[in-house]
Amino acid sequence: MAVYTEVSLSEAQALFKQLKLGHVTSLKGCAGGIENTNYFASAELEGQTHDYVLTLFERLSFEQLPFYLQLMKHLAQHGIAVPEPTANDKGALVFDVKSKPAAVVNKLSGASELAPTPEHCAQVGAMLARMHLAGRSFEPQQPNLRGLSWWNDTVPVVLPYLTQAQKALITQELAYQNHVAALSSYAALPRGPIHADLFRDNVLFDTVNHAPVLSGFFDFYFAGIDTWIFDLAVCLNDWCIDLETGKNNAQNAHSFIASYNQERPLLAAERALLPAMLRAGALRFWLSRLWDFHLPREASMLQAHDPSHFERVLTQRVSHLLDFDTLAACA
Ligand SMILES: Nc1ncnc2c1ncn2[C@@H]1O[C@H](COP(=O)(O)OP(=O)(O)OP(=O)(O)O)[C@@H](O)[C@H]1O
Ligand SMILES: N[C@@H](CCO)C(=O)O
Predict the structure, then answer these.
(1) CATH superfamily of 118-329
(2) CA 222 – ligand 2 centroid, Å
(3) Interface predicted TM-score (ipTM) of this complex, two decimals
(4) Which residue's alpha carbon is at the smallest distance from atom 4 of ligand 2?
(5) In whole angstroms, what is the distance from residue 27 CA to residue 167 CA?
(6) CB 3.0–4.6 Å: which of 8, 85, 144, 297 could bond 226 by disulfide?
(7) Which residues are in the Aminoglycoside phosphotransferase domain (predicted)?
């Protein structure tokens, strides 16, 4: 149960009053999630009930949060289905609840799809592309804090915990990624705000007439400025991967890339570097999972995910350099 900090109805009431969201009629701790305290709240305003999520951030600070919340607000206001943070009179999006930074966003409907089909992938791919385009007019800058410089800092920290074969794989991959990052074709890639963690559990779908309808993306707290193709690669490494074997699911990948490409045609340089970015995405999550697993932070509430899954994905991505059929199909 992800309620690390208890919030009373009257504390929620005070915040909702400040935000002019009406009278809180229900407040329930949310069982999902492991990083933050989340409450589902309903509030009545002018005879209508609206549903919200009240989040108390257990890891991120008051200073770090505006980038993420402003990005969500910007995307929501540009027609992308993401939770929109509520501002107070002064335009602030982060508030103090129980000495923790807190925010209130609208609740998206639906549920995560943990066994996605090509139809789910098509909808996520299209909205990912639209999200990238909508992000072009977002001005605040914050790098992807889980990007190359974090990999360079963190690989040496996890090395002592690895077997010889794992050490070889991770150091060779890091060297390869440093090489890619130095290429002029990499420097020229289009970039902007990316989600950077858009896994199956960060997307919700409704069911309408027995068919899935994407209701939105959430959990933007690893977002940052990075290449759009890296964001696409992170998605392909989760939505289009067999979780048992780490193997590419070509049907899902084709659907994901084709619908992304329809909204925003990939540049030749992006196509050329996609295989390298698939490796980068696998390295990023293998590394963060190794780091969480072997070096749990003090008093951390995070339950580490299985690192070996992304070791398998990386191995697959390195040995099957490119799923040519998938890319060719969306050319
Ligand atoms: N805006 C939203 N609308 C609907 N449901 C939401 C929203 N935000 C969060 N949720 C629900 O709350 C659950 C927990 O949210 P989230 O995944 O952001 O938790 P977390 O603890 O912040 O992060 P983590 O994914 O790292 O555990 C989600 O699985 C989702 O079901
Ligand atoms: N999506 C990440 C968890 C952090 O949000 C992972 O699966 O390792």
Answers:
(1) Aminoglycoside phosphotransferase (APH), C-terminal lobe (3.90.1200.10)
(2) 10
(3) 0.95
(4) 197
(5) 48
(6) 144
(7) 27-253
